[in-house]
């Protein structure tokens, strides 16, 4: 997968009011690394996310702030995953006056006191809250799906959105609960018309189009699951499926993801189980003993 990634520079000015600073943590799930964004045009700016604590990241932040003659007034956390919050301590060591914000800060024990930051506390982000810096106004949008505390931020001046990990610059996102994730995508799509600045990967010039693509992709996967469950044969091996045409998740993966490398099937299975859970809640499929699934007779394809 790494060979297919678009190369990204460590620091890049993406617009007059947005500079991307990579987290220095490329990998299988982080792509080119975590994107962090310095937002604004004046001396006091906003920072979105803090990567995972690699020395290269805080060094790049320090250099960029010096070149810009700027400081960070507030850091806005899209969600509490290590690759987005691990640099908080380093940021506060560099800039002790920076205020840290995250969704559900009061309810999250991890966010109550920042490790390595001298016991600094966080402030909560409310849905619809506006954060301002010279040249930039960001409106927070609670968009659970990738995580329950996930936030996106609409950049008014560019009609753009910082999408966190709900929408990526390359590939598709992972999520905790599919139905919740799809509701968030549907909410995000009409809120902007321009760019998506993702948590990983390159900028998407038409953010709403990418969200529509994500929604369509998930709908297609659901239809594939339903169609395969309806089948009485393993489409890949041509063998009868055991237990009266019922399927395990991995059996479904081997058919639906037959063109995907087998070492990626476990990840595909996790996503497919999310689809099955959603369909079960909708009364379209039935969960059986032994981790097997079948199409409910009342389901309509």
TrEMBL record:
Its cofactor is Zn(2+). GO terms for biological process: secondary metabolite biosynthetic process. SUPFAM superfamilies: Metallo-hydrolase/oxidoreductase. One of its GO terms (molecular function) is hydrolase activity. Pfam families: Lactamase_B, WHD_BLACT. InterPro entries: LACTB2-like_MBL-fold, LACTB2_WH, Metallo-B-lactamas, RibonucZ/Hydroxyglut_hydro, Sec-metab_biosynth-thioest, WH-like_DNA-bd_sf. Keywords: Hydrolase, Metal-binding, Zinc. Residues 33-200 form the Metallo-beta-lactamase domain. It comes from the Eukaryota. Belongs to the metallo-beta-lactamase superfamily. Glyoxalase II family. PANTHER family: ENDORIBONUCLEASE LACTB2. This is Metallo-beta-lactamase domain-containing protein. It comes from Thyridium curvatum.
């Amino acid at each position: 997968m790494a060979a297919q990634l678009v190369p990204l520079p460590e620091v890049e000015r993406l617009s007059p009011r947005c500079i991307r600073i990579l987290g220095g943590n490329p990998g299988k799930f982080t792509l080119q690394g975590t994107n962090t964004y310095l937002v604004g045009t004046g001396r006091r700016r906003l920072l979105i996310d803090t990567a995972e604590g690699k020395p290269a990241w805080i060094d790049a932040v320090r250099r960029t702030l010096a070149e810009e003659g700027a400081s960070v007034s507030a850091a806005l956390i899209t969600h509490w995953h290590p690759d987005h919050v691990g640099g908080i301590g380093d940021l506060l060591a560099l800039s002790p006056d920076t205020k840290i914000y995250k969704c559900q800060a009061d309810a999250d024990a991890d966010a109550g006191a920042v490790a390595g930051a001298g016991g600094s506390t966080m402030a909560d982000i409310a849905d619809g809250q506006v954060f301002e810096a010279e040249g930039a106004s960001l409106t927070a949008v609670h968009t659970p799906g990738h995580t329950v505390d996930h936030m996106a931020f609409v950049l008014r001046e560019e009609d753009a959105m910082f999408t966190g990990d709900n929408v990526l610059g390359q590939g598709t996102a992972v999520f905790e609960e599919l139905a919740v994730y799809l509701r968030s995508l549907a909410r995000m799509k009409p809120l902007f018309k321009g760019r998506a600045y993702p948590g990983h990967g390159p900028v998407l010039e038409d953010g709403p189009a990418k969200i529509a693509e994500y929604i369509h992709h998930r709908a297609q996967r659901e239809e594939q699951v339903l169609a395969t469950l309806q089948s009485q044969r393993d489409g890949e091996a041509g063998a009868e499926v055991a237990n009266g045409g019922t399927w395990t998740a991995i059996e479904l993966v081997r058919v639906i993801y037959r063109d995907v490398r087998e070492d990626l099937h476990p990840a595909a299975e996790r996503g497919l189980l999310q689809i099955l859970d959603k369909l079960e809640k909708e009364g379209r499929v039935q969960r059986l003993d032994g981790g097997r699934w079948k199409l409910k007779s009342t389901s309509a394809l």
